[in-house]
Design brief:
CATH architecture: 4-Layer Sandwich
Order of helices and strands: EEEEHEHEEEHHEHEEEEHEEEEEH
CATH superfamily: Clavaminate synthase-like
CATH topology: Double-stranded beta-helix
Strand order of the largest sheet: 3-4-5-15-7-17-6
Structural class: alpha+beta
Strand content: 15-25%
CATH class: Alpha Beta
Shape: globular
Helix content: 10-25%
Radius of gyration: 19 Å
Number of helices: 7
Length: 322
């Protein structure tokens, strides 16, 4: 390790870090690193480069507390408020609780079950969806409760050339909406309405890759197509995006960390945990993201709602409004 002159702490030895790919295009486990300690710029660059290349990276047996989780996130980017719609942990405004029976899961039984049901990219209803999500496992079932990710860059490349040419120029309307009226979920959504029009194919701002930006849980329609046309195209793209060859399944252990690129992946939280008596508790931090850009250079546009700010800026804005 090298000493961090500014803090006096020991930073990581970048040469000791190893990257272990999990599939051909998505997912890598990173070893030889202690996330409770400062990374140092060289180690941070190794981790961030692996994150860009493999889209989701895993760190086993880290056992961070809330403060260490926030400290690591700040080395990767600027943390947002825990969740723009559903709030944050008391005393840690950057952290959102991913509990088994959290409010966001209250409508799970009302959803029609199809191959893409539940798959999503975090908060794409915002004009600037999060850059990344960093999820920490605390209470993990002995079996079940796995999370899945899919590679939306590989999914784009897997489309036929003709279909790529068609979707390249389309946009989609993303929004939060409640399936059931008059409950806590709807009240949370109404307090912070978000709706945005994003390109169906976005260009990743750091890698330049084209990404099939089709979050099934938030993408509602395609402007310029009739409702029937739009629904058929969306279902075709959703089914394609979650094909097994683009996906990765991760079995959690207590203390594990997963960090994924929200600009090039979608993920699926487990539903099997509701069929068991096991508890499951994780905590998530998201990082402030950018406004998506399509292949023609046009940017997304907000239809309702404000951008997602840093946690500090969100709290300051709330204080001014009260």
């Amino acid at each position: 390790m090298n000493r961090n002159v500014e803090t006096g702490a020991m930073s990581q030895n970048a040469d000791a870090i190893q990257i272990h790919p999990q599939t051909l295009s998505i997912g890598a486990e990173i070893t030889g690193i202690d996330l409770s300690q400062p990374l140092g710029e060289a180690a941070r660059r190794v981790v961030y480069d692996a994150f860009l290349e493999w889209k989701v990276v895993f760190f086993r047996d880290q056992n961070l507390d809330h403060a260490a989780h926030v400290a690591f996130a700040r080395q990767m980017g600027e943390p947002t408020i825990g969740h723009a719609v559903f709030g944050h942990e008391t005393g840690f405004p950057e952290i959102y609780s991913i509990a088994k029976f959290r409010t966001a899961n209250s409508h799970r039984e009302a959803r029609m079950q199809r191959p893409w049901t539940g798959w999503h990219t975090d908060i794409t209803a915002a004009i600037n969806p999060p850059l990344a999500s960093i999820l920490r496992g605390v209470t993990i079932p002995p079996y079940g409760g796995d999370t899945l990710w899919t590679d939306l860059a590989a999914a784009y490349q897997g489309l036929s050339e003709t279909l790529r040419g068609f979707v390249d120029g389309l946009t989609g309307i993303h929004r939060f909406e409640a399936l059931v009226k008059g409950d806590d979920y709807e009240e949370s959504v109404q307090r912070r309405t978000m709706e945005s029009e994003h390109p169906l194919v976005r260009v990743h701002p750091e890698t330049g890759r084209r990404v099939l930006y089709v979050s099934p849980s938030f993408l509602k329609s395609i402007p310029g197509l009739s409702p029937r046309e739009g629904q058929q195209i969306l279902e075709l793209l959703w089914e394609h995006a979650v094909r097994p060859e683009y996906t990765l399944r991760f079995k959690w252990r207590a203390g594990d960390i997963a960090m994924w690129d929200n600009r090039s992946t979608a993920h699926l939280a487990p539903s099997d945990i509701f069929e068991s008596d096991f508890d499951r508790q994780l905590y998530r931090i998201t990082l402030v993201g950018d406004v998506p850009v399509g292949i023609d250079g046009r940017t997304s546009r907000a239809l309702q709602g404000e951008p997602i700010l840093s946690a500090a800026a969100e709290l300051e804005a709330l204080a001014r409004a009260s």
